[in-house]
Amino acid sequence: MNPRMTKLSLPLSRALGAGLATGLAMLPVSAQQVAQTKEKIEVTGTNIKRVDVEGPAPVEIITKQQIERTGATNVNELLRTIATVDIYDQGEIASNSPAGSGTATIRLRGFSERDVLVLLNGKRMPVNALYDSSGAGAAVNINMIPISAIERIEILKDGGSAIYGADAVAGVVNFITRKDYRGAEVQVGYGISERHDGEEKSFNAAAGFGDMDVNRYNVLLAFDVFRRDPILRKDRDISRSVDFRRFGSVDGRSSFSPYGNLLDDNFNFTGETVRPCPPELYRLRCRYDFNASLLTAYNGADRMTGMVIGHFRVTNDIKAYLQFLYSKSKDHFEAHPVPDFFVLPSGQFYAGRFMQGGPRITDRESTAGQLVGGLQGSHRAIEWEIAGGTGRVKVTNKDKNYYDANLWNAATGSGLIDATVDTNDPALVESLKVSPKREGESKLSFLDLKASGEFMQLRSGALAYALGASAWREELSDRPDALQQAGDVVGSIAQSAVEAKRNAKAIFAEVSVPLPGRIEVQGAIRWDSYPGESKTSPKIAARWEPARNLLLRASYAESFRAPSLKQLFGNSEQGAATLESADECAAIGQPYPCSVPAFFVTGGNRNLKSEEGKTYNIGAVFDAGALSAAVDYWLIKKDNNITTPTILAALQGGFVGRDAQGRLLVFTNLQNIAQAESRGYDVDLKYRVGATSFGRIELHNSSTFYDYYRQKGIGEEEWSYYQGTYATPRFRNVFMATLETGPWAVTLTHRYVGGFWDTDQPSSRSEPRPATIRRVGGHEEIDAQLSFTGIRRLRIDFGVKNLLDRDPPFSAINAGSNAYEQVGFAPLYTSRGRFYYGTLKFEFK
After folding, report:
1. Residues 6+ apart with CB under 8 A from 114
2. Least confident among 14-23, 205-214, 605-614, 754-763
3. Average pLDDT of the segment spanning 803-825
4. What is the SS3 assignment for 115?
5. What whole-number distance in Å separates Cα of residue 634 and Cα of residue 681?
6. Is the CB of residue 665 less than 8 Å from the CB of residue 597?
7. Mind listing the pLDDT tens digit for each residue in 303-315?
8. pTM for the model
């Protein structure tokens, strides 16, 4: 075992003893509970209904009881308690990202959120309306799913493209809501950090009425409200100042100072200032500490989500259902006053910050709605379903306290505005301001047809099948303000527009073949067709029970992910370059030295092809009564990965051309130029102790280990290894212990995230890492919850998260690089600290 994993010898981890050290794992509780019923159900990973949940593919099931024990009040927080999920909370930490702030997505197996398919009751949902031109963020925002409606979560941990479609490369997460629920419940919650900030208030209500057998209908209503106050960076020691020298790191204070740092003709700092700089702020030049005020370490939230699901019995053999989801969130983000290179009347430039203009403000409103309807029925031995739906996500960003560059430059150059003082004419300042507005809209409409049944009854069981077809339409509209598109907003970045849509379709087939010797083989194949490209994705899987308490399984699947609409149709731009290095000269066939003018093209690429993948999984499940265990090994390979090449890589890859004027073009826009692989294993353990003098005890541990995540680009012979670098730990572990005695229940949860090397640069296995790279330690948090159900229809929960008040481990990369949040720690955890919460839930029957 990797020596870094020995850090599991922390207090609660020791309680697992030798069982964890040997890598045993649990069979999820719901898998056993559901298997005890004889009704066939559909489990994520197959369209064939079955009695036994543990099939050829590894599926992790999170039950409603497990959800309640976490104390989570929203889906994003719930995911922190699942070791399989790659925790990356950038959307909650980033306070001024134009596209990402306030959103939450899911990552699995080291791959991006775009490689994970998120379903609600087995149906697709529209992706976020604003995402980067690289495609980052083009995924479902899980904050819009009401936690009160969730019955369970099923996570398919191998490739699901053969069954579900292109974007199930790294797995599928299916949120399943309650069915045939009768009654009502109301839950109110309150939480606050020990430092009296980050206050949370929640209200959840659910009601169900109607009996399918008696009334021929059932309707579920669910409604969630969640509000959270922000946590400011200045109120946590790790992030109170960008001067991280107190941790032996860099001084990250900004050079864009309100006092103005003068520049020479080559835009180098002269060390002189326009206005006298206070001594405590001067170090080589005048500094500005943007973490000392205003910015958040954890964003506020104002969310409301409602859901209505109706099931109706049309005839004895036909059921109809209708599902409506609506979510609305409001976010308020503030950034420091505008920084820029300002000009003096003399023509000399300086790096400054215009404090008189006030903080830059973004007010975001996001709405999401989806309507799904369908019919389910049976005819003889065939079960069928017809479903259709449409969904839309709309996001509007309204900015304040920005400036029109065309007016601003003239005003500062003429001396009408002095950006180093706050005594400028207020009316003039206001006349230069602009309030850019960016609107995004993402739509998804679909029609699904499916049939399943049994061909025949063999001696070893039923030969079952499933057939289906789908058609869908994706639409994306991203409309930044015209000034933003032109890059003429002082204090903002250029933002590209896109208007795109496409139609796609697919057909699939699946078969389950029981063989003698307690063997089952599953085969599936799916054909997807996108404009200009089609792909067939096969899957083969098998399970074998050599003994009644032992199951062995293996699967192989192929997958592909079509480029996102913005990756295809995002605006492209050109910039000038001169090719003159030895490698560049060699790549274009010129002797060195050379000096060749060229233009490089950036942005989207309509010629992108789909990324293709292969997934291998081998696992075992063991059930010995009180002890149940499972272990699964995975390997995922992806080819044709979409990424942005350097100029040299584009030249070496042949991504060159000529325009109508004969100018040399180097295409550094998005290209299919990389390979990626992920390898590791999951281990789970569950142990139930029967009735004791203390009560009933249940122990549950889940771990995910990464052997590697690596990439290789065109022209590269060696792999670049990223696992174990910044924000990509090799190991995650969640241990939960529950004691139930009478109406009381106590749950302790220990969450551990492994450490990593404090660099975002990959390593090569042929060369060791330099000794100068520091090591970021692992991080543990312990949560405790006390539950009481001794009063009829009332449940009371009180809990403490991060009981030991652990601070996140410091990361110099996060502190010193503008590419990250500069809060001093990786977005794998929060700096919230010890947090108290309580909930009251009352049930009406």
Report:
1. 135, 136, 138, 139, 167, 561, 564
2. 14-23
3. 91
4. helix
5. 6
6. no
7. 999 999 999 999 9
8. 0.88
